[in-house]
Design goal:
Elements lengths: L1 E7 L2 E6 L10 E8 L3 H8 L9 E2 L4 E8 L11 E4 L9 H4 L27 E3 L2 H4 E3 L6 H4 L5 H12 L7 E4 L3 H12 L5 E4 L3 H10 L3 E3 L6 H8 L5 E6 L6 H8 E9 L24 E4 L6 H12 L9 E6 L4 H10 L6 E5 L2
Helix pairs in contact: 5-6, 6-7, 8-9
Length: 352
């Protein structure tokens, strides 16, 4: 089969690989729509998970089932499905502990283009199909549904980690697609003021649609100082880290009220450590918490998020700024995520 792969650090291209085999609990899926992610950029161009050779990229796909294992009960050939970016092993002890994203090891629920080939291929493999696939709702555009694979659940997970409550003042650091979904999720949770850190006008326009009340331009100075000024020195109740780098945590701690919570879903693709400012952290006694996490994944979460779209609670289609027809546009779409042109939020590639 034809596949778009990481050939090595800083190199991508088309390769031929054998079609994956289907285990008794598994499914083989043909993609209908896929979307490259900043995580793919971190993987290829920053070496975030180390050097990989001929590893098929991608973890955001909506597709059609072409084969199911003998023990699969709820899906059949021809079903159109949403495939979560995180496909845990649900019988693993870490799943039973409540951390399916870390089943069999830290971050090991994230299999696509990490521990196994990804979804940018003519066919791809899904483990534990009954637990990791969700039916595509009737009438939902497959491109829109790709946002259920990763962007929507990851952004919402930042909101969950920070435990956003009615009336909270919230800062969202980074308003790419994950940050935009975090903004929407914070608004749905009842946040009062939502301060979004970002500069691209297209992202700001969509953030306002999702509930942003104020915008912070990191080019105008330290974001923590800007937010402290806007809040009269009080800071915010919650910080959602959906972008930035290893230095972002120090600013997040500084802008956070005592007892506040940071929910971070940002993928730190480089660097060895983060630093926490001692005094601003109350010398370790401020009750300021940092909660970081990889979104849980799985069927139930995908079904619930898709239901929110169907019910009109959130409209991720606003983020689909670039639509391509045909697999041949994969490299173009990936490089667009790398360059982040001013008019870009998220590209989607529909498969012929």
């Amino acid at each position: 089969m034809k596949a778009f792969a990481m050939l090595g650090l800083n190199r991508v291209g088309w390769i031929e690989k054998d079609r994956p085999a289907c285990g008794p609990l598994d499914a083989i899926v043909r993609p209908l729509a896929v979307s490259p992610c900043t995580s793919d950029v971190h993987t290829v161009y920053e070496g975030a998970i180390g050097d990989r050779h001929d590893m098929i990229l991608g973890h955001e796909a909506v597709g059609e089932v072409v084969e199911v294992g003998s023990l699969v009960k709820d899906f059949k050939v021809g079903d159109k499905v949403i495939v979560s970016a995180i496909t845990p092993d649900w019988g693993d002890i870490n799943s039973q502990r409540g951390f399916p994203m870390h089943s069999t090891g830290m971050l090991a629920g994230w299999k696509f283009s990490n521990f196994k080939d990804g979804v940018f291929a003519e066919f791809f493999h899904v483990n534990e199909a009954d637990a990791n696939l969700a039916l595509l709702p009737e009438g939902m555009d497959p491109g829109v549904a790709t946002m259920v694979c990763d962007m929507m659940p990851t952004g919402f997970h930042a909101v969950e980690l920070a435990d956003v409550q009615f009336g909270d003042d919230v800062a969202v650091v980074g308003i790419g697609p994950v940050g935009l979904m975090a903004t929407a999720g914070a608004a749905l949770r009842g946040a009062a003021n939502i301060f979004c850190v970002g500069t691209r006008q297209k992202c700001k326009d969509v953030a306002k649609e999702y509930g942003a009340t104020d915008f912070i331009n990191y080019k105008n100075g330290p974001i923590d100082q800007q937010i402290l000024e806007l809040t009269g020195g009080k800071g915010v109740d919650k910080v959602l880290i959906c972008g930035g780098d290893n230095n972002t945590f120090a600013q997040a701690i500084t802008m956070l009220k005592p007892g506040g919570i940071i929910g971070s879903v940002n993928y730190l693709g480089s660097g060895d450590t983060i630093s926490i400012p001692r005094v601003e952290w109350g010398c370790g006694m401020s009750h300021k918490q940092i909660r970081c996490g990889l979104m849980p994944g799985g069927r139930l979460r995908s079904e619930k998020l898709a239901a929110m779209i169907t019910a009109g609670r959130v409209d991720p289609s606003l983020m689909l700024t670039h639509k391509y027809q045909g697999f041949d546009h994969m490299e173009e779409a990936l490089l667009m995520m790398r360059s982040k042109t001013p008019d870009l939020i998220k590209p989607v590639v529909y498969i012929d």
